[in-house]
């Protein structure tokens, strides 16, 4: 047994490949247990552990299944009809629908916004002397909640402003500021977008 | 750069004053461009064929302990700032097309360190660093230089130069050896001590210590961003490209506005282990022109921006959480205060930071 456990340890470390041992593990509950705990130990040594650990739910599930009364012929309901069954009840769908709709709205607004840059020019009140970075792609909104439509455009603009500014700040982080101020930095992202769309 | 200047020619100009600046830029770049045409074609081919010849003529390797993750990172840092190399890599991010880059580094006879980073797809983007001057050449923007020792690019340059800086915030773990880009590689895992930030996996070339692959992973080990090296050449002499650069022709160093030193109105009570405040000012946001109180936190690997302003009824008076590529953006409203946190952080941490902000007591 000790020999087997030693071999098992080597197997987990990837130092040994032994078909017989693998078979033995399959048939021996104690070895299988060891196999699992060795993996757990290895993962924690390598800091590979997930933030939440689920220790062996398989055994619990198996036990629960064993207790489950066997149903030989489940009663048919209308949901089992081939077509109806594949339709998700509308109420259930609600959450997903809302998210999908909000993303679609965001995308459309994104395109409109690109074409509307002239309207937004007053916000770049000073002459655009310098743009910072060229390729900030439009925000792909993995929205976690729905937005009222009227606010979405403004919100998107603000989000873009934050993301742009963050990129700028990262670039200028390492550069020390000097005494005199000669250059004001303004972002020309908007005009970039105009040019890039016109090139297409 | 070649591509850059061509686009500059083709791009429809709406703004005449830009055109003048661009012509000047173009003149500066022409000498560089022509010389590097042949070069880039070769490099493109290398990017396709994974070709990593043994670097037999690298400098006599300095000895670093190969039995600790720390030793390996020192080796990496030494290699990245002292070897002459040319690396092609691909940057992969979710939801974005892959981006191939060429990254070259050289040390001149007089010991000046030179670096170049070039985005190979699209109109191109090029960054050249000569010692402590970093010049950015980007489409639709007049070129400019910054006084800095690091390139702001897709990889954490500061980490390559001084991996020691992050040892208060992260644990380094030796994982094992594997084969990456056709080379024997040592894998090192970098995990935040308080599990508050994303982790990193780096694979370092066994022989030279150069980075071959780098994965940014979230707390559950899901991949967020990846850099995969496809070709890597270490040479005795710096690449010819660096000879062609005339330092005098590079754009002038920008003079940044001095920071407005203000008395802090808001206090950040929670910061992840090892994070420090590196910048605080009040400035206006691009696009919207709103004025915000700004704080940057950094641990040497991740930089986080925090924006604070009074809540207004202007569309962003809701709480927002979204992910843009690998950046998390979180906006929280707490009474009068509207806080936005942006950075490569797990949402929980962003939330923790944002909700810890309160009015300074004195």
Automatic annotation (TrEMBL), chain A:
Record has Transmembrane helix as a keyword: yes
SUPFAM superfamilies to which the protein is assigned, alphabetical: N-terminal, cytoplasmic domain of anti-sigmaE factor RseA
Pfam families referenced in this protein's UniProt entry, alphabetically: RseA_C (PF03873), RseA_N (PF03872)
GO molecular function: sigma factor antagonist activity
InterPro entries, A to Z: Anti-sigma-E_RseA-like, Anti-sigma_E_RseA_C, Anti-sigma_E_RseA_N, Anti-sigma_E_RseA_N_sf, RseA
Keywords: Cell inner membrane, Cell membrane, Membrane, Transmembrane, Transmembrane helix
Composition-biased stretches (Polar residues): 188-200
Residue ranges constituting the Anti sigma-E protein RseA N-terminal domain according to the UniProt record: 6-77
Gene3D superfamilies, alphabetized: Anti sigma-E protein RseA, N-terminal domain (1.10.10.880)
Membrane topology qualifier: Single-pass membrane protein
Region feature (Disordered): 173-200
Signal sequence segment: none
Start and end residues of each Anti sigma-E protein RseA C-terminal domain: 133-171
GO cellular component: plasma membrane
Keyword Transmembrane helix: yes
Places the protein is found: Cell inner membrane; Cell membrane
Function summary: An anti-sigma factor for extracytoplasmic function (ECF) sigma factor sigma-E (RpoE). ECF sigma factors are held in an inactive form by an anti-sigma factor until released by regulated intramembrane proteolysis (RIP). RIP occurs when an extracytoplasmic signal triggers a concerted proteolytic cascade to transmit information and elicit cellular responses.
Family under the similarity heading: Belongs to the RseA family.
Subunit structure: Interacts 1:1 with ECF RNA polymerase sigma-E (RpoE); this inhibits the interaction of sigma-E with the RNA polymerase catalytic core and leads to a decreased expression of sigma-E-regulated genes. Interacts with RseB.
Name under which the protein is recorded: Anti-sigma-E factor RseA
Species the sequence originates in: Paraglaciecola mesophila KMM 241
Species lineage: Bacteria, Pseudomonadati, Pseudomonadota, Gammaproteobacteria, Alteromonadales
């Amino acid at each position: 047994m000790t020999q087997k456990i030693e071999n098992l340890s080597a197997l987990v470390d990837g130092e040994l490949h032994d078909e017989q041992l693998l078979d033995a593990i399959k048939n021996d509950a104690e070895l299988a247990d060891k196999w699992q705990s060795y993996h757990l130990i290895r993962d924690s040594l390598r800091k590979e552990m997930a933030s939440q650990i689920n220790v062996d739910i398989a055994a619990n599930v198996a036990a629960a299944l064993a207790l489950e009364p066997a149903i030989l012929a489940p009663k048919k309901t209308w949901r089992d009809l081939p077509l109806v069954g594949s339709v998700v009840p509308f109420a259930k769908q609600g959450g997903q629908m809302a998210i999908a709709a909000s993303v679609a709205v965001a995308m459309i607004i994104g395109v409109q916004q690109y074409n509307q840059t002239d309207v937004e020019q007053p916000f770049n009140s000073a002459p655009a002397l310098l743009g910072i970075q060229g390729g900030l792609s439009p925000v792909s909104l993995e929205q976690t909640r729905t937005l009222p439509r009227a606010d979405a455009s403004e919100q998107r603009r603000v989000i873009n402003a934050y993301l742009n500014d963050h990129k700028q700040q990262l670039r200028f982080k390492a550069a020390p500021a000097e005494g005199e101020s000669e250059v004001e930095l303004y972002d020309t992202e908007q005009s970039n977008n105009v040019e890039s769309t016109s090139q297409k | 750069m070649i591509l850059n200047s061509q686009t500059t020619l083709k791009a429809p100009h709406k703004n005449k004053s830009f055109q003048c600046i661009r012509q000047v830029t173009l003149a500066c770049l022409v000498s560089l461009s022509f010389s590097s045409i042949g070069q880039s074609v070769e490099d493109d081919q290398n990017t396709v064929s994974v070709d990593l010849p043994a670097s037999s003529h690298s400098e006599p390797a300095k000895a670093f302990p190969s039995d600790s993750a720390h030793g390996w990172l020192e080796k990496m840092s030494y290699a990245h700032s002292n070897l002459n190399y040319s690396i092609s890599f691909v940057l992969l991010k979710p939801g974005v097309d892959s981006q191939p880059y060429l990254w070259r580094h050289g040390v001149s006879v007089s010991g000046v360190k030179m670096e170049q980073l070039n985005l190979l797809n699209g109109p191109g983007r090029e960054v050249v660093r000569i010692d402590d001057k970093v010049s950015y050449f980007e489409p639709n923007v007049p070129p400019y230089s910054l006084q800095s020792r690091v390139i702001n690019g897709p990889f954490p340059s500061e980490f390559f130069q001084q991996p020691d800086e992050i040892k208060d915030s992260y644990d380094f773990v030796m994982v094992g050896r594997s084969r990456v880009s056709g080379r024997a590689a040592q894998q090192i895992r970098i995990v935040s001590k308080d599990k508050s930030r994303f982790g990193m996996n780096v694979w370092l070339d066994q022989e030279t210590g150069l980075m071959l692959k780098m994965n940014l992973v979230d707390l559950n080990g899901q991949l967020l961003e990846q850099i995969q090296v496809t070709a890597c050449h270490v040479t005795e002499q710096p690449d010819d490209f660096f000879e062609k650069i005339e330092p005098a022709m590079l754009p002038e160093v920008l003079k940044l506005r001095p920071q407005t030193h203000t008395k802090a109105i808001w206090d950040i009570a929670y910061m992840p282990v090892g994070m420090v405040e590196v910048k605080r000012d009040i400035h206006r946001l691009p696009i919207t022109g709103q004025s915000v109180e700004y704080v940057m936190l950094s641990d040497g690997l991740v930089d986080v921006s925090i924006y604070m302003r009074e809540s207004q009824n202007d569309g962003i008076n809701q709480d927002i959480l979204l992910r843009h590529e690998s950046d998390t953006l979180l906006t929280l409203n707490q009474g009068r205060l509207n806080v936005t946190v942006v950075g490569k952080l797990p949402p929980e941490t962003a939330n923790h930071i944002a909700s810890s902000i309160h009015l300074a007591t004195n």
